[in-house]
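Note on ligand handling. Small-molecule inputs were canonicalized before submission; formal charges were left as drawn, and no protonation-state enumeration was performed. Where a ligand contained multiple stereocentres, the stereochemistry in the source SMILES was retained. For magnesium ion, this procedure yielded the string shown in the input block below.
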Amino acid sequence: PARVLAFINQKGGVGKTTSCVNVAAALALRGRRTLLIDLDSQAHATLHLGAEPGGPSSIYPTLVEGQPLAPTPVAPNLDLVSAETDLAAAEADLASADDRQHRLARALDAVRHRYDAILIDCPPSLGLLTISALTAAQQVVIPMQAHFLALQGVGKLLETISLVASTLNPSLRVLGVVVCAHDASAAHTGEVVADLERFFDAARAEASPWSAAVVFRPFVRRNIKLAEAPSFGKTIFDYAPLAPGAADYRAVADAIAAVSDAL
Amino acid sequence: PARVLAFINQKGGVGKTTSCVNVAAALALRGRRTLLIDLDSQAHATLHLGAEPGGPSSIYPTLVEGQPLAPTPVAPNLDLVSAETDLAAAEADLASADDRQHRLARALDAVRHRYDAILIDCPPSLGLLTISALTAAQQVVIPMQAHFLALQGVGKLLETISLVASTLNPSLRVLGVVVCAHDASAAHTGEVVADLERFFDAARAEASPWSAAVVFRPFVRRNIKLAEAPSFGKTIFDYAPLAPGAADYRAVADAIAAVSDAL
Ligand SMILES: Nc1ncnc2c1ncn2[C@@H]1O[C@H](COP(=O)(O)OP(=O)(O)OP(=O)(O)O)[C@@H](O)[C@H]1O
Ligand SMILES: Nc1ncnc2c1ncn2[C@@H]1O[C@H](COP(=O)(O)OP(=O)(O)OP(=O)(O)O)[C@@H](O)[C@H]1O
Ligand SMILES: [Mg+2]
Ligand SMILES: [Mg+2]
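Structure output:
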């Protein structure tokens, strides 16, 4: 049965959707039956895969009425549960349900036997939708960009993960960090990555959710093709399969799969 | 007394903070007494200006307890009301107050005579903090990047602005769009800008809040110095005054000031 991987970072525009979509597509190309859950009311993962927000595969009825998931195929080995713009309202409706954090988890349990990997794309916040993803997931991937300010945000995210792990989901593990839109010539990027790796190394002996976390290689280089692909409703592998962005995400997906299988 | 300008876009990472901070700094350098309000619990505008989140200048007591604002000077002609990480909780507390959307507006009214311009940096959502900003502001600046998906987000934002204008704040005007991190070589950027301008032109004869909106020139080019500056706690004008990012934001600030004065 599938492991559930949540792609999370409360900072906006760091590469969550770009990573979730292209890693899912890469896993599908490797033959893994993959499900992508779009949990962001802006529905960019849905649009990125050339699908319509809302519709019969929308996650909204699952969250708000407890209906079963209705994934739709978008590519060989790749299914999608789409978002819709009413998800913002859903978060408010969900807030008044007793079992609110668990609805997504329960709905996913019913389909896990059909897939090898389930990936969840989260909005830029630590609100109820992201908490639902952390409750439903076994593993967390943190996309980020190598700037010093990004380290602060990761600290806050790990606090939240720690809280969910100790109260709602003891099996939660952080797989690691995907460095996105990497520009090797930018000041301090080397130091930021070194800081992160020192932090993870120091946690190796502990029993924290990130005690086996890594900074994934390769870093995903800034590549204009990755920015263009969503507007065409295509993953990088359909839009520009020879671009550096395709090579980087293929390799990152292999690395994530290896660690995911191992943990 | 100051006009209040809100920098808004629910999409993450498009350049709201980079624009709000550097436009505020440029206005201050032009001799306008400027106040920046950091309304994002991630406090990136606060950090970008080299200040500490929280502390005596925090906006939290204003929002949650109705206390007066306590701006702190961060540069000649530039004061800051800082954010703090508890703002996420503040949004929840605020939700139960009767006059919740108006608290920020009322607090700003008390200080407007001390400034020529008040700029508000908003989080990547259309929640209560952003609605408070739309209620308190006279004018809206929309930072965005020139991708097709960005147009969808702008459409949704204008719907929200229309709603606030018809229910809470009839004087609300959209000044226009700042095109951020522009890469002229990316596919479709020209078409995205043309689409936006056609849309605004079609609205000229209407009575909508965006009937005088423009796409500001120059576009702010992608410039690594703009991405590095926040990690040093400096605006572009202190960090790299000769960089293209400095020239672009100086010019954009002049354009925004001109339209702001005129409307
Ligand atoms: N490696 C890259 N090279 C070039 N552009 C990239 C790269 N990764 C992401 N981008 C672009 O950066 C922008 C933000 O990426 P993305 O939407 O994936 O971030 P996000 O974290 O999902 O944002 P949000 O917080 O709004 O959900 C998008 O326009 C995307 O196309
Ligand atoms: N013109 C530019 N050139 C290079 N990098 C830029 C440019 N504008 C913004 N950036 C970088 O892009 C990232 C996102 O910008 P910024 O934080 O201003 O967006 P935001 O809309 O405020 O994000 P959020 O939604 O999280 O509040 C930052 O790392 C910033 O330094
Ligand atoms: Mg996203
Ligand atoms: Mg910001």
